[in-house]
Design a protein that fits this description.
Order of helices and strands of chain A: EHHEEEEEEEEHHHEHHEEH
Structural class of chain A: alpha+beta
Oligomer: homodimer
Strand content of chain A: 15-25%
Number of strands of chain A: 12
Radius of gyration of chain A: 18 Å
Largest interface: A-B, 38 and 38 residues
Shape of chain A: globular
Strand order of the largest sheet of chain A: 1-2-9-4-7
DNA sequence: CGCTCATTTGAGGAACTTCAAGGTCAGTGG
DNA sequence: CCACTGACCTTGAAGTTCCTCAAATGAGCG
């Protein structure tokens, strides 16, 4: 895990907020809540933002009162926890279209921008009361929560596998979540990934190098990867 | 992880079902759903069981269609996953009063009795439509799902700590969940715990022995433990 | 008691971490 | 244009933790 120097961690909040949403906002929103106009209006009354965060900015602090759910419009958001020992664990990455932040009454994790990103805040109480009047909203919430459970449980399973398997699984999952593009452009830092996988950056790097040497993936440029052998990757993931 | 011999694993289903609930059923039900009579009636129309399972019986198979949620009345239930390699991971333990089984449309884990136990099956579709009519039910469901998320995320965090810390955390959490009794009577097998913590039984045993030698806990009889030094345990948990 | 099954203990090896150094790349200023 | 810088990633060697295998001990039960 990363041994982070808190003095350099940007806990100051450099986020700036715009009044009006971007086209992406509506698109991702519609994907999750459906494109019903009256529902959209009801929802937009509950939202704050979108707010923009630079990489490593803190979006919400661990232990803060959890008044809002978070909806990612752009970029990658991570939830993570710091130990007294100074180590960090990344619990989850959230991508555009993800709705999260279920812990109550306080956040149990710090929410941070893993890349420059754009996040919508949705008032929890308002969303819940809307859900009690509109079954569709209730279903969206339960589906989002179920997805979060499934992902966390998959993560637990991942953590008792070998380093190489963890890396292979992470890359494949990310490739799927990002839409199975030809090249996988890994958006977050290796440190973030290592902290997510419960490995050191060194072990992560060695695992990726291993995968490359075995011909399962290859590095194209900087952060772009090509997943060459999906069958072998699948076998590796177990 | 356990390398289980499938030929001896009791995949046959020895569960037997009684028509009428036990007093415990109502008590645990009321704790979760409140003791509203009309609500109780509506719920009881959706439930099947209670069903009784002996230790290691399978309650529901991985990949089965997830038609029901599960509600534990008595005993301990585990959710787990088997790999092709024959290893097993335990993802969660559920205690009396726990409502779980959110994955859709199929189960992604096998649900098994970790001790002799008593489980209620609640029709998912019925519960969801009840939730859309009754806000209280909707809140119960969201709360249960939130708890599940929190627990899974805690589990993820746990998996990147040392063996001794994992053992200490597990025992303390269990003690809390079981009501902070004077003695902690560990209900599940060491193999189950090891598979939950991502350790071997040997490492688990050594960790517990370590904790005992350091005076943090002591063994009373067979499965009963005394958590001696809660402060030191807390420090160990980090 | 003598069986079985669960847990403990020990010794050796594998996987991962740690520490330390080297390499790559983008941005910056001469 | 090129050297300089800092952030990030990679590689190597040594150390630690945990796993594996094997055997001993303990607990429950007919």
């Amino acid at each position: 895990m990363a041994n982070l120097d808190f003095s350099t961690t940007p806990f100051a909040d450099f986020a700036y907020t715009k009044i009006f949403g971007t086209p992406d906002t509506a698109a991702h929103f519609a994907k999750v809540f459906g494109d019903n106009a009256s529902l959209q209006r009801a929802l937009s009354a509950l939202q704050r933002g979108p707010a923009y965060f630079y990489r490593d900015n803190v979006i919400a602090f661990d232990e803060d009162v959890a008044e809002h759910l978070f909806f990612v419009i752009k970029g990658v958001v991570r939830s993570c926890k710091f130990c007294k020992s100074g180590t960090r664990s990344v619990v989850s990455f959230y991508l555009p279209g993800d709705l999260f932040g279920w812990s109550e009454p306080k956040l149990s994790l710090s929410i941070e921008a893993a890349t420059d990103s754009e996040v919508l805040f949705i008032k929890r109480s308002g969303l819940l009361s809307l859900a009690s009047r509109d079954v569709r909203v209730a279903n969206v919430l339960l589906t989002a929560a179920s997805n979060e459970i499934a992902r966390a449980q998959e993560h637990v399973l991942l953590m008792s596998k070998s380093a190489k398997c963890r890396a292979a699984t992470f890359l494949t999952d990310l490739w799927v979540r990002l839409g199975k593009a030809k090249y996988l452009d890994v958006p977050m830092s290796h440190q973030d990934i290592a902290d997510y996988l419960g490995l050191t950056i060194e072990t992560l790097s060695r695992s990726i190098t291993d995968l490359e040497r075995s011909g399962l993936i290859s590095r194209v440029t900087g952060r772009a990867l090509l997943l060459r052998n999906h069958f072998a990757l699948g076998r590796m993931m177990n």
